[in-house]
Amino acid sequence: MMSNVSNFVRIVEVGLRDGLQNVKQEIPTSVKKGFLHLLGSANLKTIEAASFVSPKRVPQMADGAELMRTCQRLEGVRYTALTPNLK
Known about the structure:
It is built from three helices and two strands; from the N terminus they run H-H-E-H-E. By secondary structure, it is an alpha+beta fold. Helix 3 (64-70) links the parallel strand 1 and strand 2.
């Protein structure tokens, strides 16, 4: 029965985006890339890696475009980003 769960449920890992956005100390993009690679290597299939928000509001996400553009993508892993609005 559990093998059919994946047909109905998609688990999205948000630790990189949600977990780091409130950290006060700046985390280098290279460290985020390493974290992202570890999450993908853990066989997670969907990872929300970034958020395209104002860097004034969420400074930790200011490198989101660079992270998404330059990260090492693993086959079979879907990398997504949160985009609250078009502004």
